[in-house]
Amino acid sequence: MKAKIAIVCILVTACLLAPNLVLVNLGLAADMPSPSWRIKTSMPTARGQAAVITGDDGLIYVMGGFAGSDPPMTTVQAYSPLTDTWMSRTTLFQATRGAAVAKGLDGIIYVIGGFVASSISDVQAYNTTSNSWTAKTDIPIAVWMAAAATGNDGRIYVFGGEVSSGGPTNKTQVYDPATDTWVNGTDMPSARDLLGAVKGPDGLIYVMGGYNGTTAVSTVDAYDPSTHSWTTRVSMPSPKLEFGIVLGPDNNIYVIGGGTEYGNDSPPFFDTVEIYNPRTDTWTIPSWSESLLHTPRKELGAALGPNGRIYAIGGANGSYVKTNEEALIVLPQNVPPTAYIDSITPDPATVNDSITFVGHGADPDGSIVGCKWRSSINGTINTATTFTITTLSNGTHTIYFSVQDNSGAWSPEVTATVTVNTQLTDDPLYQKLLDLNAAIGNLQDQNSNLTSTASDLTNKVDMLTIELLGTSTLTIILVVALIAVVFMNRRRPPPAA
Length: 497
What we know:
Layout: H1 2-17, H2 19-25, E1 36-39, E2 51-54, E3 60-63, E4 76-80, E5 85-89, E6 100-103, E7 109-112, E8 115-116, E9 118-119, E10 123-127, E11 132-136, E12 143-144, E13 147-150, E14 156-159, E15 162-163, E16 172-176, E17 181-184, E18 196-199, E19 205-208, E20 220-224, E21 229-232, E22 244-247, E23 253-256, E24 273-277, E25 282-284, E26 301-304, E27 310-313, E28 324-328, E29 338-345, E30 349-350, E31 355-362, E32 368-375, E33 379-382, E34 386-389, E35 395-405, E36 414-421, H3 428-491
Parallel strand pairs: 30-36
Antiparallel strand pairs: 1-28, 2-3, 3-4, 4-5, 6-7, 7-10, 8-9, 10-11, 12-15, 13-14, 14-16, 16-17, 18-19, 19-20, 20-21, 22-23, 23-24, 24-25, 26-27, 27-28, 29-31, 31-34, 32-33, 32-35, 35-36
Helix pairs in contact: 1-2
């Protein structure tokens, strides 16, 4: 009994310290509403149309805004999700409401445009470390109620918004924090303001909903910063504007609250959460009552805290509110990715040859963020999906390839083989063949010399034969002549007396 009590105490303590982790590990995630909202410490200043974003320091910043009467605010307040407390920060140097907001890769927060009597073009940059503001180059077309997101290339993309003359624009304006300059991107397929934008886990920027000058829309378009192109995605379940939007810890996009009427603080006010899965291009609406906001509203801001929870802050629902709600997101168990080796060429290869490796990975519930190749002979050889190498050693290599997903899980290794042969000139057999060839050459030379010598001897023999034959013939002629003379002398009569 004491042991059971001790176990219960340990579980209770663990739940208090790490509720998300314990609930998932105990198998209760299926019974947990996700998202499920609870009230947190209210913002000190009631307002909507504020720029809301999480800084690199883990604080959620609420900047500027509107509480029902002009001028708009310069107020900046920061919320700590870890301590559930608020603190004041240095005010904006230009009051604004309805500004677009994005964070650069260097952690600087950019509050872009907004409204003061009409659309403004100011760009205000906030350094969370020094708690200070700097003016940057104005946005070329002044807009308010635009949407902004930072691409993987570090540039900030500002979509649509209402221009000074009234009415929405379809312009995409691109800011480069590194050079403090603006250029035009590819126009949106349709003009909108009061819309939302967020970068997905795939690097695309999803631009959703808004107001087309006549009515709220449910349009969803995806912008690819690498190609500057647009693709249309499945529409939102319902038209809406002035909602909170954030990429959740599960890599789904959460659209929170909102409304359908253009006017400030005009009903209806939604308490719903709609969830978009970029991987499957599908929407879901949680059926749990706990997944509805406690306070229906539009003109709110949303941000993901460092604790993996979503915060919906401020807004309007008949009056401007201080409401701060926190949503617990239950993460599903991660499915590991799968690795594929597409090709290794050439195979076989020769030492010092350029050998190209091509592979890829797939992840059913996330994205591929890393990979590793290793050789049974040379060890780890690269960490890119495609690469070329010239330093593989001689031998038959077993090649292992694995990929990592955005949850940190590695796939099982897949294998292939590639044979790397030595250079022909380095092969001992080749050297033996060279030596044998040289020996054959020497023998051929010797044979040629012997043949030449034999030919010379033959010529000499022939000459000697001719000489001998010549001598013999002369001798014979002389002998014959001598015989003839002798014979004739015998037959001659003696001389007369």
